[in-house]
Automatic annotation (TrEMBL):
Cited PANTHER family: 8-OXO-DGTP DIPHOSPHATASE, NUDIX HYDROLASE FAMILY PROTEIN
Gene Ontology terms describing biological process: DNA repair; DNA replication
A Pfam entry, by short name: NUDIX
Cofactor(s) recorded in Swiss-Prot or TrEMBL: Mg(2+)
InterPro entries hit by this protein: MutT-like, Nudix_hydrolase, NUDIX_hydrolase-like_dom_sf, NUDIX_hydrolase_CS, NUDIX_hydrolase_dom
Reaction equations catalysed: 8-oxo-GTP + H2O = 8-oxo-GMP + diphosphate + H(+); 8-oxo-dGTP + H2O = 8-oxo-dGMP + diphosphate + H(+)
Protein family (similarity comment): Belongs to the Nudix hydrolase family.
Record key words, sorted: DNA damage, DNA repair, DNA replication, Hydrolase, Magnesium, Metal-binding, Mutator protein
Lineage, top ranks: Bacteria, Pseudomonadati, Pseudomonadota, Gammaproteobacteria, Pasteurellales
Protein name: 8-oxo-dGTP diphosphatase
Source organism of this protein record: Gallibacterium salpingitidis
Length: 128
């Protein structure tokens, strides 16, 4: 099966994390952490800084890796490196997402996550 390597940022502000709803495609309307595919020659951290600038127009500092999520979708295998991140410059703008929310621990179950993200949410809950 095709392997898609993705990187995602769990942007943190005090006890909240920033989630976005997909604005297009197969998973339109479902919630995720901003990020995208790692291009050849990029490190995961470089890919994450680039994607967040493209999608949200802010600069981030990339922190520790939370987990690498491995998940089989119907047509591909997802391998997703998930990092803590903080905004270091700029105001959030939604360039691609249809909606966004800052979620605290008790709000994490209130949105419909992409299937692969369920595995990550438990880890985030332990830290928030
Ligand atoms: N960014 C992101 N992608 C996720 C998450 N969970 C999850 O299953 N995915 C999947 C959905 C997509 O199949 C893939 C990410 O691809 P993408 O479409 O965002 O990447 P991209 O912007 O580089 O690609 P493209 O649309 O330009 O082709 O990973 C998540 O939390 N964040």
């Amino acid at each position: 099966m095709k392997v898609v390597r993705v990187v995602a940022a769990v942007i943190r502000r005090e006890d909240q994390v920033f989630a976005t709803a997909r604005g297009y495609g197969e998973f339109c309307g479902q919630w995720e952490f901003p990020g995208g595919k790692i291009e050849e020659s990029e490190t995961p951290q470089q890919a994450l800084i680039r994607e967040i600038k493209e999608e949200l127009n802010v600069d981030i500092a990339v922190g520790e890796c939370i987990d690498t999520i491995e998940y089989d979708y119907a047509t591909f295998h997802l391998s997703m490196d998930c990092f803590w991140a903080t905004i270091i410059n700029g105001q959030l703008e939604l360039k691609e997402a249809q909606a966004a929310k800052w979620l605290s621990k008790v709000d994490l179950d209130s949105v419909t996550w992409l299937p692969a993200d369920i595995l990550l949410i438990d880890k985030i809950k332990k830290v928030l």
